[in-house]
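Case study 2.
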Amino acid sequence: MGTPSRQRRGRGRASSTPMGARDAFASVIGALPERTRVVLLVFAAIAAAFFLRLIFLQVIVADQYSAMAEESRTVSFETSPRRGTIYDRNGIVLATSVEATTIYANPVEVSNAVEEARQLADVLGGEADDYQDLLATPSTTFVYIKRQADVDKAEKVKELDLDGIYFIADMRREYPHGSVGGQVVGFCNADGEGLTGLELQYDDILKGTPGVYVAERGEKGFPIPGGVKEEVAAVDGQDIMISLDIKLQDTVERALEEGVEELETEEGSSIVMDAATGEVYAACSLPYMDPTDMTKSEVGSEHVKAITQPYEPGSTFKSVSAMAILESKAMGPETTMFCPSTISANDYDVSDSHERDGATYSLREILNHSSNVGISLASYNAGFDKLNDAIKRYHLTEATGIDYPGEGSGSVLDFSKWGRITGYNISFGQGISVTPLQMVRFYGAIANDGVMVTPHFLIAKTQSGEVPTYHEETVTEDMEAIEDLRSMLRSVVTNGTGVAADIEGYEVCGKTSTAEIPSEEGGYKQEVYNLGFCGFIDNSSSKLVCFVGANEVYAMRQTTQIFNDIMSNAVKQYNITAAEAKQPATSKE
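Prediction:
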């Protein structure tokens, strides 16, 4: 009975010890003078603050301060990879990256900014004051003096042995053909980023992966000799081959520029596409863009407007209406109908571009004379639903899917909202917008036996050997209608408005256009037109389709001679051969 009692007392003594210690400590503190107690408490608070600060610095923000310290003693920037080369279809270089040198400075080290600026200007060009401002930049240890400078010029700067001037290997984009093909190829900024054209379209393929350059610097920002702390090599981009033929491109650009000048305007465009493959051999629009000197390029020149800018096509669209009529079997090429001088619908009048008396025309002659009245009545008789079906089936207001940034798509009023005047207008290319490229694709389907292809530029990734494939679609199997339309388009060139487009020994087929231009105030502008011609050489070894347009032309004229100049050169360049020529059918007035 006595032993358990001692154990209970032992537990009681153990549990009372801490309380006793606290009481003893409190007794000691309490016995101290009040002034001493205050000093001790303040010291304890300060010690606790230092302890918490130490934890904060060494645990919570240690990484942040470490990074700040690292930054204060290093200079770092990305290094440019070698951007992939762009080749034309024959392997000619259109865009390439060459070795360059980036020159930078540490203003802290510059002892005489005025003198160094003068010497830099003597070698690199430009104004000495600009270099002086850079060299005297306050509160920094890094400024670019010249990015992507010529290697030779950089070597001359090295020979000057200037204080605080440093160099690093870099790459620079060059365009050997200047403005020729510039709108298609596009251009890059100083960081090697594609901004327009195929440089933008295929930036992910071309650009590669930047490297990293990190160098240590000592007191006052001076570089430490041999102090490259980290250098990650850049990964070069891939090369591509595109369908452009730079020789034909040059021919097209020259012919367009000279032809537009003769038409006394400033804007025009052209496209040459292979209807069998969709490969675009040439494409341009005025004014041209020079990627080697963007300071001289005009606003809007960076795009091929024949691809990006929809417009009302005018009479080149009559071929679409004629095809719908032929497919409906409402009329054949020699079927005739009376065409009054004017017709009216919904309080609007429709007339031809030239005054005439009423006349009986065949469908072929309607196209030859480019009669608005004739194609309107023929489309109405066949049924506007057939025309609407053709517009949809030939994808005439849909983007073609070309691999070029900013493609336009066009538009047309929903068929449920068509009135008779709407149908009339659309039949001759008013009240509908398309791009020249969409018209080229339609004419290409006629030249290619009803098979419509996807226009494109990329034909191969040269290093991997990858060859992309593109969608094609049979949009009509009515070979009779196709042959009839080809025959009628041939008549336009031999007996109609397109005679200047003809090339001796070849069967040129096509259609002219003198399209009115919508006015911002409503209606259409007076006595000013968008001209166009779209055509191809039938029964030949080539299925090249060519569009030529000129914008804002005063008086009714034609672009047929420009087409002739372009395609005559193409005949020689590609040795295009013709089958035995067929005589187009004629009809009696």
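Residues 322 and 485 are 7 Å apart (CA to CA).
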